[in-house]
Amino acid sequence: MNVFSKPMSYRQFLKYLVPSILTMVFLSFYTTIDGFFVSRYASSDALAGINIVIPITCIVFGISVMIATGAGAIIGEHLGRREFQKANEIFSMITFVLMIFSIIFSVVGIAFLKPIAIFLGASERLMEHVLPYAFVIFAGTIPMAFKLFFEYLVRTDGNSKVGLKMSLIGLIFNVILDYLFVAVFKLGTFGAALGTVISICISALIGLYYFLKNSNIKFCKPKFDFKVLLKSCYNGSSEMLTEFSTGITTFLFNLIIIRELGEDGVAAVTIIMYIYYFFIAFYMGISVATAPIVSYNIGAKNKTKIKEILKYSFITIGITAIVIMTIIFIFGKSIIALFADSGNVFDLTLNALIYFSPVFLFIGLNVFMSGYFTALGDGLSSAIISIMRSLIFVVIFILILPKFIGVNGIWLTMPFAETSTIIISLFLYCKKGRKYIK
Q: Which has the least CB within 10 A, 10, 45, 201, 359?
């Protein structure tokens, strides 16, 4: 726990961030790899089919993140007070709750597979690609949920390198299996989903082994505490909404785009979302890496350390925003070409990226502020930031902007939503967040 309490230089801070950022980047690759292989070895319709299913994965990841970050903040505070048995009891209880959710979600999803696909916007033309992918994703709910849960909790335990190992090994297997199932055996979206779920199983098992053998946080007989569970969900609700924002946005985009631009438009949305997943992972990495330090030092009452972490985080977010925009400006066409060499899908995506890319200038601060308030145990402020950027402003702007500037208004929805949310984030930070460093 030394890194949680001792002063560090900015260089040491960046070194500390690397495992968490890489973990989140690798996580972003799971669906992207599926998209890459099906776009190359299946069709643009198969690519669009995967995009229809994205809201399902966002629900699984969102619930897992909510429980992991919300409980992680509470566990971190107990560790800071050296109340180890209480931390173990909360960890065990939350693990049990996540298992129950995963089983129910999997069973219900498989039972109502086609109605769910129709609700998500799958056309008859896309249904043959959507159903097999969705079936495997629902069947793999348990490993998907626990992979993310364990990756978050190893940071609370002070061992982010284990999370990096989980993501890297899973990613390697995902690439190999997707190549075999999609490129070699020609299994289409079914093969892509199968490769992803198997690789996630491997990753989750690594996390399980760590908590069984090497962790400071131990499994024990769980003591059900409804208040702690409620507080965990409340604290982590903003992170859930952050994860849901991708699913909500994708769902709304799909419904409008398929009406305006057809299946090629959905394929363009898919590529834009892959770019979004990749770059937002850097901001998520900063947020999830710093949250355990903040929680620990809230428990230890070390305001100096919290102030240090905030200063370094703000600097890093600003630099990251500039680097991301530079990469998009220089390599945007090359990135799109990984999924669409030429033709209508390429042209649609390139136009979309021009309007969509400013989102990366603003989203980092909002993601970090949401995570910061969760780490403080201020679930309300965190939830306000998340619900405004992921739902309220998205719905407002996606309904208004296209009416005035056409399809390009859809691509501007998220930049406008994130820009509007920054005002709220800064207000809450000045009013409530700064008191922890004074």
A: 10
Sequence-separated (6 or more) residues with CB below 8 Å from residue 404? none
What are the distances in angstroms from CA 123 to CA 113, 126, 249, 357?
14, 5, 18, 28
**DSSP class of residue 343?**
S
Amino acid in position 195: G
Kindly report the pTM of this predicted structure: 0.83
The pLDDT score that the predictor gives to residue 181 is: 97
Q: Provide the CA 143 distance to its chain's centre, in angstroms.
A: 16
Contact 305, 7 (CB under 8 A): yes
**Helix ranges, 42-83 (H):** 44-80
Quote the tokens at residue 113: 């597979």
Q: Is the dihedral of CA 77, 79, 85, 89 positive or negative?
A: positive
Q: Distance from first CA to last CA of the chain, Å, rounded? A: 24
Work out the angle at residue 75's Cα, subtended by the Cα atoms of residues 307 and 233, and round it to the nearest 5 degrees: 95
Q: Can you tell me the distance from the alpha carbon of 50 to that of 35, in angstroms, rounded to the nearest whole number?
A: 7
Phi, psi at 215, each rounded to 5°: -80, 150
Tell me which residue of 270, 278, 245 sits closest to 398, measured CA to CA. 245
Question: In whole angstroms, how far apart are CA 194 and each of 28, 42, 64, 173, 176?
Answer: 17, 15, 21, 11, 12
pLDDT value for 299: 81
What pLDDT does residue 156 have? Answer: 86
Instruction: State how far the Cα of 56 lies from the Cα of 113, in Å rounded to an integer.
Output: 11
Within 8 A by CB and 6+ apart from 113, the residues are 131, 134, 135, 138
Which tens digit of pLDDT belongs to each residue from 52-103? 998 899 899 989 989 998 898 899 888 888 899 999 999 999 999 999 999 9
How far is residue 378's CA from residue 371's CA, in Å, rounded to a whole number? 10
Q: Is 432 helix (H, G, I), strand (E, B) or coil?
A: helix
Rounded Cα distance, 49 and 128, in Å? 8
Which residue in the block uniquely carries the two structure tokens 């992991």?
A: 68
Can you read off the two tokens belonging to residue 368?
Answer: 């970090």
Give the largest CA-CA distance in the chain.
61
CA distance 64 to 141: 10
CA distance 421 to 8: 31
- Assess contact for 298 and 377: CB atoms under 8 A: yes
- Is residue 385 within 8 Å of 369, Cβ to Cβ? yes
Q: Indicate if the alpha-carbon torsion angle 299, 305, 311, 317 is positive or negative.
A: negative
The residues near 139 (Cβ < 8 Å, ≥ 6 apart) are 106, 110, 197
Question: Is the pLDDT reported for residue 219 higher than 60?
Answer: yes
